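hiii, so i know i said id send this last week but things got crazy w the move. better late than never?? heres the sequnce for the chain we talked about at the cafe, plus the structure i predicted for it. fair warning i was half asleep when i ran it
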Amino acid sequence: MNYKDAFAIDEKSSLDQGNKDYKFNLKNYSNYEPKLVDDFYLKYFIRLLLFETRILELHGFLQHHYDYCNDPELYYSVLDLEVVPKIEEIIDHAQVRLEGRGYYKEVKLENGFTESEGIIQNYDLDYPLMFHQTSLSRKHKEFAKRVEIINKFILDYKGKKEKRPLKWIAGPSQLAVIIQELILQGYMEGDMRNGDVNCRKLARELYDVFDIKDCDSASSIEIYLSPGNKRHKGAKQKFDDRNFLIPPARLT
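okay and structure toks below
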């Protein structure tokens, strides 16, 4: 399984020097595909979640990956069905390992990666090292607490899906056009990314708040939010044809 859609990953390859760094993003190692081991990004995510992210920042880390991943439903499924069980396994079976690190007949590559039998892996991000470091540093109780935080995050998400108190009886296109116009005219603020409103995050926030007719995912809203998208332009034109106007907030 390719886990790239489940997590927030830099858009450009790690080889691209112009790549902008987002604090909680996973680096993009597409330069090693298609030989990169299938569960690489799952292991990478777990490594950052357990060893590289302070527990006080864990909720922000989890929220960031929800906001910037390509497939939120897949993200929560992976958290629930793969990430939590794997962390529990690490807690239960952690032990100091004295054997050498590495893979069979490996060929060393850059950034700690190696190729073995046609598969590219990175021992620094692999489970044997996590078992070893968990035991050596006695992280069992801390990691159990992290599991509690993750489970609460998952439950909160499920609760939001079940409790969307505002009923929007029109469709997602109308909601998207009106919200974009409210932001443009200064009535609302949206989270920014690269100087523009982060339409993906805004769509998910709207999906969490509204029960929207004929809308079964945040992506159904997102396609109408982006000003450059032809669907947004088509929906907005219908409003313009009817002289729809929201005056700037500073004038009201």
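btw The first helix runs from residue 40 to 52. thought thatd interest u
miss u guys!!
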